[in-house]
């Protein structure tokens, strides 16, 4: 009988909902397990297969941990502030509130149709005033702690979106969202001092069970560099320029300085005659992204500013240039150029004919890889010494001494610290640490975000709103377009902006910026602990019980944004004594991208995969017979290779979809969608169902069945715990193959297998469970225990005789060879004494039963 997935799945979804099967409360008598998904932005296009992938993985863990006796917190909510709803509002006039509500309803329905075991009573949405009241409150805490400030900043302004974007939202000079060009522009903005936490954010990575690659991304993003600041006096002026270098050992070789085009001293330092040229250069540079500016392959550009500095070690007069390969956002925005030993400086010097002074004689032994193929050491040496080649390796320092300092015989590390000490003594510099991490630009010029709980007074002072004044709602408006001058749509609503502050009794202006979408997702995992609390953001006891999140699963695209911001807020909350753990997410795993094959005809038009058939490794359009080009790429509507979970659920069922997405391959790998393979998973479920409902089912049990059952439980347990869901499923498939070869199917073993199936295909598992006659829902039933006896091959009792008399018995795995049993027998003292050291004349061996040794 074909199993009816529609009837079964809706039956159990209803049952779980009515019984609130996954509702959970803090309960100190049980161990807790908090398993969290990266909650979705409820977009208009609904759930995609990538959501299903991560959410199935966590659901398997949630269900498994419940079976294992844990008190499991598995919540779901909506990251529902965001640009698309606002842009839709601009286009259609529909209030983002409405669009968001509609999208959330769709998402909720879709998630429920997958049978995820969420405690739906904890559902939350970041755009709900009951939620963002507390986001605003946390902002006031950051402000009070001095971690939020306003600054005139060079920001990425996107005219098309009418808003400022964070560095992380910009790629290649374009907005990641929509690809619109981005300009650099000074504007007053709210900034969060994440840099104050740089060191802790780095150090505490060691506390976490996260993929190493992901930790590395955070380490690189924070970008800690040990180096030195060096002060260069300006010729004929009482001023200095400070540079940051990681190679203070090369200071003798610094032959010019380079300032970033945004450097604040540039204007005053530039010689009158160079002013026009420098200004023009600054203008050009403001149009380029940081990435384009620092690209090694890019042709170097720059302008001499007409002024000289003095090298503090050798008194050499060196020219000052401006160039956009130096970024204002890093170090001091100025560098000492050492063209002999730094590639970029070398190229720059070559292009503008600046002096190149080699100060390191190459160590060819350690750096043989730096000798270009086809060149002799001697040639390289000659070129380096003549300043015709840049040497980036180590070696012996040359031309590197003055009256008090001699680097000649020092290693690189020794030379660095010798120079730093020398500079420190002369008040010309010191060792220092620099981070690539910048403070976090925290304001946006949007309507659909959390308003800042801040009032500005005429005298320039401000105050944050008190808790009793929160949530601060935005004005209800019809026109969602930005003000067009860089200010947000809120700025246009003057009767909302200009108020009489009752608490201070004076006129005030509301802040019109809103917070970025990252704000709400910085702490939602805490609100899930206590989502209905109206008095507090969360209850301390609950926080203490549930935190940290034990397992967090989501896409790798959040490696540095969400995950760094959330860690930062969490650490601030920790320092305020508001949370009990240093880190929010103890174990984290990434899900891989699901990609799909797309097809294009000779006109490069995409063809619907439904119209394509495969023949001899070629892809052919059914109707025209045309051979198509094909490639595997990210799913997208325009490429017609997207898959809608709803369609798959309709045709094959949610259990098949869940199973398939887990069977595709390891969780963290990229995987290629193949709808045919979904039906393979469906067939497996059918076989499982047929087995459980077969008339071969028996109350008896036999050794072989026990062995299969216990081995399955053992293997599935190990695989689930290692998040190796694909291999767990493979083992269930093997189990069915073996088990259905048995003459009869012991019910107790089917029961065990059903318990293994449950986390993966919960609807069918519940149905089978009920069919087997068990009353209590399966999800509340403990996972079966493994009896290790059944894990090895079945045992046989070997009887060992000497001259036909029984001298010993051994329970050993079946099918051992004559040699093995003979060896064991001879090594056993109780038996060997009957052999009396005599020669064995003859051995009689009956496999799995008997060994008889004959001696004189
Ligand atoms: C002299 C020197 C000689 C350098 C040498 C390198 C090699 P990391 O490791 O990434 O921290 N630098 C400093 N500030 C910069 C800025 N704002 N924009 C562009 N480049 C900048 O890199 C530090 C090195 O990058 C510094 O050390 C400086 O060049 C350059 F053989 O100083 B170095």
What does this structure look like?
The protein is of the alpha+beta class and 856 residues long. Among the domains are: 224-435, Valyl/Leucyl/Isoleucyl-tRNA synthetase, editing domain (Isoleucyl-tRNA Synthetase, domain 2), CATH 3.90.740.10; 593-640, no CATH class; 680-791, Isoleucyl-tRNA Synthetase, Domain 1 (Orthogonal Bundle), CATH 1.10.730.10; 795-855, Roll (Ubiquitin-like (UB roll)), CATH 3.10.20.590. Helix content is 34%, strand content 21%. Helix 3 packs across helix 4 (96-112) and helix 20 crosses helix 21 (675-692). It is globular, with a radius of gyration of 35 Å. Bound molecules: ligand ANZ. Ligand ANZ is lined by residues 225, 244-247, 250, 260, 326-327, 330-331, 333, 335-336, 338, 341-342, 434.
CATH class of the domain at 224-435: Alpha Beta
Could you name the CATH topology of the domain at 224-435? Isoleucyl-tRNA Synthetase, domain 2
Helix amount, in percent? 25-40%
Q: What is the 3D form?
A: globular
Domain Aminoacyl-tRNA synthetase class Ia: 434-618, 626-661
EC number: 6.1.1.4
Keywords: Aminoacyl-tRNA synthetase, ATP-binding, Cytoplasm, Ligase, Nucleotide-binding, Protein biosynthesis
Domain Leucyl-tRNA synthetase editing: 220-366
Task: Give a brief rundown of this model.
With 856 residues, the chain is of the alpha+beta class. It is 34% helix and 21% strand.
Topology:
Layout: H1 5-18, E1 32-37, H2 49-67, E2 71-73, H3 83-92, H4 96-112, H5 129-144, E3 148-158, E4 163-165, E5 170-171, E6 174-175, E7 183-192, H6 198-203, H7 212-222, E8 224-233, E9 240-245, E10 256-259, H8 266-269, H9 275-285, H10 290-294, E11 303-310, E12 317-322, E13 334-337, H11 343-352, E14 360-362, H12 377-385, E15 395-397, H13 412-425, E16 429-435, E17 440-441, E18 454-457, E19 462-464, H14 494-497, E20 498-501, E21 506-510, H15 518-521, H16 524-527, H17 540-546, E22 549-555, H18 562-575, E23 585-591, E24 594-600, E25 606-607, E26 612-615, E27 618-621, E28 629-634, H19 645-652, H20 654-663, E29 671-672, H21 675-692, E30 697-698, H22 703-721, H23 725-739, E31 745-746, H24 747-757, H25 762-771, E32 795-802, E33 805-813, H26 818-827, H27 829-835, E34 840-846, E35 850-855
Parallel strand pairs: 1-2, 1-22, 10-12, 22-23, 24-29, 30-31, 32-35
Antiparallel strand pairs: 3-4, 3-7, 5-6, 7-17, 8-9, 8-16, 10-13, 11-12, 14-15, 18-19, 18-21, 20-21, 24-25, 24-28, 26-27, 32-33, 34-35
The structure holds ligand ANZ.
